[in-house]
Amino acid sequence: MYFCKDKQFQRNMKIIIINGPNLNLLGTREPSVYGNESMDDYLARLRKRFPNIEIEYYQSNIEGELINKMQQAGFSYDGIVLNAGAYTHTSIALLDCIRSISTPVVEVHISNVNGREEFRHHSVIAPGCKGTIQGFGLDSYRLAIESFMG
Ligand code: DQA
């Protein structure tokens, strides 16, 4: 249960996981890098693990749709867990969006991007995020959710 500041009422914490391009293919996409589990199966496990947190999920391959969703969620949700996929390394528009909303954003990567090609080492969105979790496989999402629970 999540206690609001004035403790007048209680409500469940509300978090949205937003996945960017090609992450709809989790489970089949480069399994040696991203594993064999689909996001749907992983989400079911996450929701079981955190029954008191409302975990919404959104995925798009389109930059503007990711921004629309972040703007929709970004003034009422308690946290956004964002895996922007390759837009991580290119999108000033996503950085501007993260800076325009009030909900804190945690950047997530399934793989350890710093151990991969050099073009993945730089995150354009990191300066706007609360923090970054990377390299723990799908468990990176769980760790990001836990970062909002403290
Ligand atoms: C990724 C890493 C990015 O470099 C890549 O473009 C992705 C996935 C990850 O979760 O490891 O699509 O964000």
TrEMBL record:
Entry protein name: 3-dehydroquinate dehydratase
GO terms classed as biological process: amino acid biosynthetic process; aromatic amino acid family biosynthetic process; chorismate biosynthetic process; quinate catabolic process
Family: Belongs to the type-II 3-dehydroquinase family.
One annotated GO molecular function: 3-dehydroquinate dehydratase activity
Binding residues for substrate: 83, 89, 96, 110-111, 120
UniProt subunit comment: Homododecamer.
Active-site residue numbers: 34, 109
Gene behind this protein: aroQ
Protein EC: 4.2.1.10
Catalytic activity reported: 3-dehydroquinate = 3-dehydroshikimate + H2O
Chain's role: Catalyzes a trans-dehydration via an enolate intermediate.
Involved pathway(s): Metabolic intermediate biosynthesis; chorismate biosynthesis; chorismate from D-erythrose 4-phosphate and phosphoenolpyruvate: step 3/7
Site (Transition state stabilizer): 29
Record SUPFAM superfamilies: Type II 3-dehydroquinate dehydratase (SSF52304)
Keyword Transport attributed: no
Classification via Pfam families: DHquinase_II
Keywords: Amino-acid biosynthesis, Aromatic amino acid biosynthesis, Lyase
UniProt superkingdom: Bacteria
